[in-house]
Design goal:
- The complex is a heterodimer of chains A (126) and B (325).
- Chain A is mainly alpha-helical and 126 residues long.
- Chain A has three helices and four strands, in the order E-E-H-E-E-H-H.
- Chain A has a two-stranded antiparallel sheet with strand order 1-2.
- Chain A is flat.
- Chain B has a five-stranded antiparallel β-sheet.
- The longest helix of chain B is centred in the last third of the chain and has 34 residues, at 256-289.
- Chain B is elongated and about 85 Å long.
- With 325 residues, chain B is of the alpha+beta class.
- At the A-B interface, helix 1, helix 2 and helix 3 of A face helix 1, helix 3 and helix 10 of B.
Chain lengths: 126, 325
């Protein structure tokens, strides 16, 4: 049975000789990313507390690193890299589009309700 | 990937369903589409969590102060245990993908071995989550809930938390829990907290270095600590219920929504891990019995692997939004 695996990650920057090797390489990468997240989460550097687009820079870094991890889990562990382009797009873009919509709507409304609590005549601390 | 498990006699017949434009078998594609729908379920939950969090953005519990325990050690270790759990799950994902790879090369013994390790990893993860739940439910320092449902915690001068059990002073006239046998037979009452609000208040009066900390987050991103006078006044006038630990009604760490979402989302994810372990065990025995060897294809391992990786994928997001952000 011939199974084609694409063995390069990081846009071809790192190439592996076998699929097994690639798996271990991706594990090392994911572990490093998780390590960075944990260290940042424990120490919370002061310089990353600045607000960017309504959220702390640190939180943006966490979210971006999470998406990076999700990408490598899907692409290399779930072999999305080896699937046809059509299947990849069907699965990935459908999910991304719907999830973005869901997040937008709920966070927008959450922020609105918070503003009613804060600025309106609603007593919540008693 | 080229594997079809069974031949249906429609190969190559375009309108008979024989061609495969996506070059993936029916089973694998259905697993992918199930994963898409399950991903939407989970993102619905996480977005709802985000909604509630933005709604209470000024008073949401700080995760680093909630999940600080690791088994067998005392002290304050935020993040360490959950990082360990994340690593276990990623590791079991790796053994799973190694099993899939060994399956492609038709190496039965390797598949068995890697599947076994995956199952062990899954069990460690579920066990860790059970422990985490137990610690969260049991609680730590205790707190007093106000009439408005807010949480008042106690801290000393340096900002270290003070447990209610360390300061509560016995006040006479204790209320006895109502039981069916000594009151209304059709009314039940849950166990009363170990202390009353009056006892906590007496303790606060007796310990001049203890202050009340509210839920509100100040400009430095920390919980607001009240002055001594304000502490006494707040506890006296607004304190209503002593809370220890967390459940679906009350939560000593802050707003009860936090506990509700924690139980719901990590519970739903834990259930996925559990069912993943069960499915893995079934496949494991099938591999041992040689089912896939006879079938000439280990694609079933690949399909269950997809599910297992998905569970890992969800955890990566749960980890970020519950523990990091």
């Amino acid at each position: 049975m011939a199974h084609e695996h694409k063995l390069a990650i990081f846009q071809g920057l790192v190439k592996f000789k076998s699929n097994t090797q690639k798996i271990w390489g991706v594990l090392i990468f994911l572990t490093i990313v998780t390590g960075i997240e944990v260290v940042l989460g424990i120490y919370k550097p002061e310089m990353l507390m600045a607000k960017v687009l309504g959220m702390k820079l640190l939180n943006w870094i966490f979210i971006i690193l999470t998406i990076v991890k999700a990408y490598y889990i899907t692409w290399d562990f779930m072999h999305m890299r080896d699937e046809t382009k059509a299947l990849r797009r069907m699965v990935v873009w459908t999910a991304i589009f719907l999830i973005l919509y869901l997040i937008f709507i709920l966070l927008q409304e959450g922020g609105y309700i918070e503003s009613v609590y804060t600025n309106g005549y609603v007593k919540k601390d008693f | 990937m080229d594997t079809t498990v069974a031949n249906t006699g429609t190969e190559g017949k375009t309108w008979g369903g024989g061609n495969q434009p996506l070059k993936a078998s029916y089973g694998k594609m259905m697993m992918w589409f199930f994963i898409v729908s399950d991903a939407l379920t989970f993102s619905g939950f996480l977005a709802a969590y985000g909604f509630s969090r933005f709604k209470f953005i000024g008073s949401w519990p700080i995760a680093d102060e909630v999940f600080t325990h690791i088994p067998f050690f005392h002290g304050n270790y935020p993040m360490i245990y959950v990082a360990f759990m994340t690593f276990v799950l990623i590791m079991s994902s790796v053994t799973m993908v190694l099993a899939v790879d060994a399956g492609h090369h038709m190496k039965k013994n390797k598949v068995i071995w890697y599947m076994f390790l995956t199952i062990i990893g899954g069990l460690i993860f579920v066990g860790s989550q059970a422990w985490e739940w137990g610690t969260f439910i049991k609680g730590d320092y205790g707190a007093v809930q106000t009439k408005g449902g807010n949480i008042l915690q106690l801290v000393d001068n340096e900002g270290h938390r003070v447990a209610l059990r360390d300061i509560a002073v016995d006040a006479h006239g204790e209320r006895v829990a109502h039981e069916r046998k000594n009151g209304l037979w059709f009314v039940e009452e849950p166990t009363l907290p170990a202390y009353t609000v009056d006892e906590v208040y007496n303790g606060l009066v007796a310990n001049p270095n203890v202050l009340v900390r509210t839920q509100a987050i100040n400009a430095e991103g920390e919980k607001t600590v009240l002055s001594r006078e304000e502490s006494l006044r707040q506890l006296k006038t607004n304190g209503k219920l002593v809370v220890e630990g967390a459940n679906l009604h009350v939560n000593e760490y802050g707003t009860s929504l936090f506990a509700d979402f924690f139980f719901f989302i990590t519970g739903f994810h834990g259930f996925h891990v559990f069912s993943g372990v069960v499915i893995n065990i079934i496949i494991f025995f099938n591999v041992i019995l040689g089912t896939y060897e006879r079938r000439g294809s280990y694609e079933m391992v690949e399909k269950v692997g997809l599910y297992w990786h998905f569970v890992d994928l969800v955890w990566v997001f749960v980890f970020t939004f519950f523990y990091l952000v």
